[in-house]
């Protein structure tokens, strides 16, 4: 298991919840097995898809520990540690690093809208506090701040910062990052629809929402793209295209949790302010599942 870097298929995993609002631990074990058995390289616990804004610190810690116990080294376990406070992020980095995770994912601070220098200092403080590899996460659609390639290049020179999840849906952004960052710095796409093309430009994998629903197919596609088997990768990606699009027909993770409930993997529960998938969206998500050869259990 690689501990100083990341490549392949990583899933931004959902957090299964009971009707009363607590974590569904039986379903959590089932999901870890599902990914370990279907080619996923790593599981990222407590990211946006995992409803991180609604998870308490104790819940996140137990989710990580239980994922580690269940995975037993079969997949890497990373945890989301980013907050919109540098002090809060440093605190979470310290707390989660000691659990022996394979890495931490750090989203850019939301709502504050820091400058590029503020972003650099934020991540530099997190890197100084960490004892495990860090994956930066740039997602301006969620956070309202865009970490530019020049800032990423500065951060790539710091200890522990080894990778970025880049969710700007632009292949030019991948080109820019690859041009300015060191060769060993790993770029993973955070945009399922463009990851195949991103890998041809120097990305080495994906942090995926689609992989929650179709981990085996996603893993095969990423592996083919990594081997430069372009025709095979395109064929596999075409089967995933509906999921790439329609798992965002409403705010993530509303559609993906609905799809996984139809597969019998989890229940329908989300925590407010998120609510279940609107009925008028059901058909397009079901069609996307069938396009990927996924037969709903109900």
What characteristic shape results from the CA principal axes?
globular
Arithmetic mean of pLDDT: 96
Biggest sheet, spatial arrangement of strands = 1-2-3-4-5-6-7-8
Which sequence of SSEs, written as H and E, runs from N to C? EHEHEHEHEHHEHEHEHHHH
Strand content: 5-15%
What does this entry look like structurally?
- The protein has about 300 residues and is α/β, with parallel strands linked by helices.
- It has helices at about 25-35, 55-70, 85-95, 115-130, 140-145, 150-155, 170-180, 195-200, 215-225, 230-245, 255-260, 280-290, and strands spanning about 10, 40-45, 75-80, 105, 135-140, 160-165, 185-190, 205-210.
- The chain has a single domain (about 10-225), classed as Aldolase class I (TIM Barrel), CATH 3.20.20.70.
- It has 12 helices and 8 strands.
- Strands 1-2-3-4-5-6-7-8 form an 8-stranded parallel β-barrel, surrounded by 5 helices.
- Helix 1 crosses helix 2 and helix 10 runs antiparallel to helix 12.
- The model has no long low-confidence stretch (mean pLDDT about 95).
């Amino acid at each position: 298991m690689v501990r100083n870097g990341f490549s392949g298929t990583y899933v931004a995993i959902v957090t299964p919840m009971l009707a009363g609002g607590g974590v569904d631990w039986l379903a959590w074990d089932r999901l870890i097995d599902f990914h370990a058995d279907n080619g996923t390289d790593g599981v990222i616990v407590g990211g946006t898809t995992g409803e991180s804004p609604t998870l308490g610190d104790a819940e996140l810690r137990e989710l990580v520990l239980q994922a580690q116990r269940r995975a037993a080294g079969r997949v890497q376990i990373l945890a989301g540690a980013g907050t919109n406070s540098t002090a809060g992020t440093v605190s979470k980095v310290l707390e989660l690093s000691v659990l022996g995770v394979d890495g931490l994912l750090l989203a850019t601070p939301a709502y504050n809208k820091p400058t590029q220098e503020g972003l650099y200092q934020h991540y530099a403080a997190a890197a100084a506090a960490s004892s495990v590899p860090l994956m930066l996460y740039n997602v301006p659609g969620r956070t309202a701040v865009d970490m530019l390639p020049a800032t990423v290049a500065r951060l790539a020179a710091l200890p522990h910062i080894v990778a970025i999840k880049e969710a700007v849906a632009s292949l030019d952004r991948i080109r820019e990052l690859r041009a300015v960052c060191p060769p060993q710095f790993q770029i993973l796409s955070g945009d399922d629809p463009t990851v195949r093309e991103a890998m041809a430009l120097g990305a080495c994998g994906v942090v995926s929402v689609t992989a929650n629903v179709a981990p085996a197919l996603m893993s095969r596609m990423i592996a083919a793209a990594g081997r430069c088997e372009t025709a095979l990768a395109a064929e596999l990606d075409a089967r995933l295209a509906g999921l790439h699009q329609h798992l965002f027909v409403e705010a993530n993770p509303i559609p993906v949790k609905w799809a996984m409930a139809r597969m019998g993997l989890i229940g329908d529960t989300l925590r407010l302010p998120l609510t279940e998938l609107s009925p008028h969206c059901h058909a397009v998500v079901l069609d996307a599942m069938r396009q990927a050869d996924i037969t709903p259990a109900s």
